[in-house]
TrEMBL record:
Alphabetical list of Pfam families matching this protein: Cys_Met_Meta_PP (PF01053)
Molecular functions (GO terms): transaminase activity
Species of provenance: Nonomuraea salmonea
Cofactor entry: pyridoxal 5'-phosphate
InterPro entries named among the record's database cross-references: Cys/Met-Metab_PyrdxlP-dep_enz, PyrdxlP-dep_Trfase, PyrdxlP-dep_Trfase_major, PyrdxlP-dep_Trfase_small
Family: Belongs to the trans-sulfuration enzymes family.
Record has Ligase as a keyword: no
Key words, A-Z: Aminotransferase, Pyridoxal phosphate, Transferase
Name of the protein described by the UniProt record: PLP-dependent aspartate aminotransferase family protein
UniProt keyword Chaperone present: no
Length: 385
C-alpha cells in the first residue's frame, strides 16, 4: 500500500465512520453485551474485542492499524507514552536472570528503565559495536536493543547487518524508530523483530500529544497486548488516538518540510568555526551517510552539534541567546527547540552514552530556515562574549 494513502485514508471510509470527515472519537470507558456468554468470550480476546478502555476501542484501533501498515507490520499496540511502549516491550521479552544487550547510544529513560529492571534480576550491558557485542553477550542474553540514528550522537547502524548478527546468536531485536518515522525507515523489512516509537514527536507533530507504539508480528505483539499493556495500564486514550490519526494525515508533507529545513540549518552549522562537528546523517560528511542512503528514504530534522568548548557555562550562554529556538525537551513539532544533555541529563547517563559537554541538540521546526540560521549565527558569535 502507498504510505500517503495509509496516512490519509486507510480505514476512514469504513461503515463505522458513518461518513464523518474525522473518524469518531469513542469516549466511553466500556462496552456492553447482549449476554454474559458474549462478555466472557470478549474478555478472553480483549486485544481485538471492545470491552474496556484499558484494552482498546475503535478510535485507538484505527490508529494502530495505520501505524502497523506504515511499518509493514502485522500488528501495532498504542500506549499512553513512548516509555509505556518501551518498558512494556522490554518487559514482555525478559524474565529474572535474563540479560539485555544495548547497542550504541539510546534514549536516556530507556537506560534508566533497564537499570530499574536490575532489582528484578534483569541485567544489561552497553556496547559500541558488534565486536564488543561478541565479548559482552551471555547465555542469558535475550534482546539486542538499539536505535538508528542513535540517541544524541545520531550515528547510523547498519540494520541488516545487526539483525543478521542477532539472529545467528538467537537474540530478538528491538529498535526505536522515532527519529525517522515509518515514512523514512522501515526496520521490520530489514529483519528487526519489534519496532517502538514515541508518537509524541513527528507522528503527532503538534506538541499536544503523548503516546507510544510497538509494531511487529502478532506472535510477539499480541501476548504483550494481553499482559504488559493491560497490567501496566499505560493505555492510549481515544482522544490521543484521534490526534495520532490527524497527525498522520499531514505527516508526509510535514516530513518533507522538516527534511529541507533541517539539512539547510545543518549545512550552515557545519562550516562555522565555533562548531566542532555536526551530527546529521543527511550530510555527505557524516560517517554513516552511505549506509543511511541505503536503508532510509529521507532524513528528519533532529540532530546535534558539538560546540568548540568544554564549558557548561558557554553552552548555557549559547542556548540563552537563541530567540527563535525555544528551550525545551521533546521534538518533532512546528516549533524549533534546543536542549543540551550536559545541562539536563543525569550525569551518569551522559557519561555512559559518551555525550560530550559541548553537545547541543536541535529540533528544526517548520519556521523559515533563513530565520533559524540567522538566530544560530548570532548566538554562536555571542557565545564567548
Amino acid at each position: 500500500m502507498d504510505d500517503e494513502w495509509i496516512c490519509g485514508r486507510l480505514g476512514e471510509d469504513e461503515p463505522w465512520v458513518l461518513g464523518a470527515v474525522n473518524p469518531p472519537v469513542f469516549e466511553n470507558s466500556l462496552f456492553t453485551f447482549e449476554t454474559a456468554e458474549e462478555l466472557g468470550a470478549a474478555v478472553k480476546d480483549e486485544d481485538e474485542r471492545y470491552v474496556y478502555w484499558r484494552g482498546t476501542n475503535p478510535t485507538v484501533d484505527l490508529a494502530q492499524r495505520k501505524l502497523a501498515a506504515l511499518e509493514r507490520g502485522e500488528r501495532a499496540k498504542c500506549f499512553g507514552s513512548g516509555m509505556g511502549a518501551i518498558s512494556a516491550t522490554i518487559s514482555s521479552l525478559v524474565s529474572a536472570g535474563d540479560h539485555v544487550l544495548v547497542l550504541g547510544a539510546v534514549y536516556g529513560p530507556t537506560t534508566q528503565f533497564l537499570r530499574y529492571l536490575e532489582k528484578f534480576g534483569v541485567s544489561h550491558t552497553h556496547v559500541d559495536d558488534l565486536a564488543a557485542g561478541d565479548s559482552a553477550i551471555r547465555p542469558s542474553t535475550r534482546i539486542l536493543y538499539f536505535e538508528s540514528p542513535s540517541y544524541m550522537a545520531y550515528q547510523i547502524v547498519d540494520i541488516t547487518e545487526v539483525t543478521a548478527w542477532a539472529r545467528e546468536r538467537g537474540l530478538l531485536t528491538v529498535m526505536d524508530n522515532t527519529w525517522s518515522t515509518p515514512l523514512f525507515q522501515k526496520p521490520l523489512t530489514m529483519g528487526v523483530d519489534l519496532v517502538v516509537h514515541s508518537l509524541s514527536k513527528y507522528v503527532g507533530g503538534h506538541s499536544d500529544l503523548v503516546g507510544g507504539v510497538v509494531v511487529g508480528p502478532s506472535r510477539l505483539v499480541r501476548p504483550l497486548a494481553l499482559q504488559e499493556y493491560q497490567l501496566y495500564g499505560a493505555a492510549m486514550s481515544p482522544h490521543d488516538a484521534a490526534k495520532v490519526i490527524k497527525g498522520l494525515r499531514t505527516l508526509p508533507v510535514r516530513m518533507a518540510a522538516h527534511q529541507e529545513r533541517g539539512l539547510a540549518v545543518a549545512a550552515f552549522l557545519e562550516g562555522h568555526p565555533a562548531v566542532r562537528e555536526v551530527n546529521h546523517p543527511g550530510l555527505p560528511s557524516h560517517p554513516g551517510h552511505a549506509v543511511a542512503l541505503r536503508q532510509m528514504s529521507g532524513f528528519s530534522s533532529l540532530f546535534s552539534l558539538v560546540l568548540d568548548t568544554e564549558s557548561r557555562e558557554q553552552v548555557g550562554r549559547f542556548i540563552n541567546q537563541l530567540r527563535h529556538f525555544r528551550i525545551g525537551v521533546s521534538w518533532g513539532g512546528f516549533e524549533s527547540l534546543v536542549n543540551a544533555p550536559a545541562l539536563t541529563t543525569e550525569e551518569s547517563v551522559r557519561v555512559t552514552m559518551g555525550i560530550p559537554v559541548g553537545l547541543v541538540r536541535l529540533s528544526v521546526g517548520l519556521e523559515p530556515a533563513d530565520t533559524l540560521i540567522k538566530d544560530l549565527g548570532l548566538a554562536l558569535e555571542g557565545m564567548s562574549a
